[in-house]
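> example.struct
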């Protein structure tokens, strides 16, 4: 990360409240607490994991982070038109009795709509708010005035937060990458969003507020490959002004989360962004169709859990059915990004339904060539992934047949693969041709491009790369749709 600045900042906002600036680690005098069960006991909510809850708040955004020791951070609070109603209900359902850190990415009314209500609730009916973090650029809205009034009334510490700062969050690194000093674009609020990178072990998450092209360009110039993150929250609700090609290439996410309304009056997420994501084969989760999205990291991998099963191919997002705003319900594991099975977490309103990282009998298959693989195979299925070449020589788009997966029949009997399917994490799907049989000890190479099928080479027929160079999962299912084998690589 860039070196931490050494100058403290003090700013008076509209004559009401001081933003006590910080350089280095933001003061965190509050003691993290664990949610109260209501009977005087407490429950461990993180179990050694970090959770990021992308709350379904329609054409807005709100993200709850729960740390390994139960620390809590809330980034933005939803739209002004519901006064924080959906955010508060979500927090209460998940027994969040204290907000240790309340982060305002920027002061647009669709991001601070619930600030006043959240502050009032936690200061009067719960265990309080430890501190609030704000980029320091005022807005001339009633929503902003109500937010500042609540800060003043309840005397909550309010810190001006800028690039180079860090928020103390237990064993999780929370680095502030923006806004810079001086501000960009004459203090435009979107372009001076607080940008956070959270790092837990080998996993990381980038929250970019409503950062648009200028701030994204600044971040690329300032941090380069240090922007790389396991998951990216798409900037500005999936607007074409954000998530530029250079930014996506710098962040190189394994998955992207979009927070916006299904019938967004702005057309979010924009088709241009979805095409950029599709070109990079990045699985995309949308609060409008997946509902609440909970990511659980154990430091080596990330479990992706959603309320609804919906398309994750960026170009098929709108094929999913909309989920009503504020719908409650458990989340279910849909995918894992890197590492092995991720245990723990409090993502659902009750018990989660999640895979265990194995096939139907729990046996693990041998790994493929590559790093940090995890495999699983159903009993009796002798098919293995012998090799994965996700990064074709030269330009992947111009050399699709050099992107391939090699399957091997390690058993003693031929396997009829008619109707079996191969998928990636973005739900791109290939079906083996009828009558195709893989003899015992034989291999077949499935190439992404086009060609004439043979006994040793099959062709997906894709017009663009299938396998994500930064990591993906090969998912093999039999003719009945049962998963037989999964191999993840990084």
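> example.seq
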């Amino acid at each position: 990360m860039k070196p931490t600045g050494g100058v403290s900042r003090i700013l008076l906002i509209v004559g009401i409240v001081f933003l006590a600036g910080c350089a280095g680690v933001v003061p965190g005098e509050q003691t993290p607490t664990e949610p109260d069960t209501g009977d005087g006991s407490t429950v461990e909510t993180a179990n050694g994991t970090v959770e990021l809850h992308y709350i379904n708040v329609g054409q807005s955004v709100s993200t709850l982070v729960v740390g390994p020791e139960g620390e809590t951070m809330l980034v933005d609070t939803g739209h002004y038109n519901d006064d924080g109603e959906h955010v508060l209900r979500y927090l209460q359902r998940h027994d969040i009795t204290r907000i240790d850190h309340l982060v305002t990415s920027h002061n647009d009314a669709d991001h601070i709509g619930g600030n006043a209500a959240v502050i009032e609730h936690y200061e009067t009916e719960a265990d309080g708010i430890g501190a609030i973090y704000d980029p320091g650029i005022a807005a001339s809205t009633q929503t902003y005035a109500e937010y500042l009034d609540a800060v003043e009334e309840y005397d909550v510490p309010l810190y001006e937060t800028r690039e180079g700062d860090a928020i103390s969050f237990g064993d999780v690194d929370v680095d502030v990458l923006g806004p810079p000093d001086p501000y960009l674009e004459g203090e435009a609020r979107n372009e001076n969003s607080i940008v956070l990178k959270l790092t837990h072990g080998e996993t990381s998450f980038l929250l970019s507020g409503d950062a648009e092209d200028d701030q994204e360009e600044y971040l690329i110039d300032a941090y380069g490959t240090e922007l790389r993150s396991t998951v990216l929250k798409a900037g500005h609700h999936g607007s074409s002004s954000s998530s530029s090609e250079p930014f996506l290439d710098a962040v190189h996410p394994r998955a992207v989360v979009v927070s916006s309304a299904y019938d967004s009056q702005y057309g979010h997420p924009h088709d241009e962004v979805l095409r950029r994501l599709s070109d990079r084969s990045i699985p995309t989760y949308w609060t409008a169709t997946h509902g609440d999205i909970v990511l659980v990291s154990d430091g080596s991998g990330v479990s992706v859990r959603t309320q609804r099963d919906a398309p994750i191919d960026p170009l098929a997002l709108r094929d999913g059915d909309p989920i009503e705003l504020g719908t409650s319900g458990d989340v279910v594991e849909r995918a894992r990004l890197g590492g092995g099975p991720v245990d723990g977490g409090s993502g659902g309103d009750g018990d989660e339904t999640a895979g265990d990282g194995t096939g139907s009998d729990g046996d693990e298959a041998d790994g493929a060539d590559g790093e940090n693989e995890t495999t699983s195979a159903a009993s009796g299925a002798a098919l293995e992934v012998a090799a994965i070449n996700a990064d074709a020589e030269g330009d992947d788009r111009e050399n699709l047949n050099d992107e391939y997966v090699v399957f091997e029949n390690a058993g003693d009997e031929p396997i009829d693969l008619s109707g079996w399917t191969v998928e990636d994490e973005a739900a791109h799907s290939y079906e083996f041709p009828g009558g195709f049989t893989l003899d015992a000890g034989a291999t077949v190479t499935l190439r992404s491009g086009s060609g004439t099928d043979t006994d040793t080479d099959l062709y997906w027929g894709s017009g663009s790369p299938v396998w994500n160079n930064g990591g993906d999962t090969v998912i093999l299912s039999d003719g009945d749709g049962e998963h037989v084998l999964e191999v993840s690589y990084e």
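> remarks
The radius of gyration is 23 Å.
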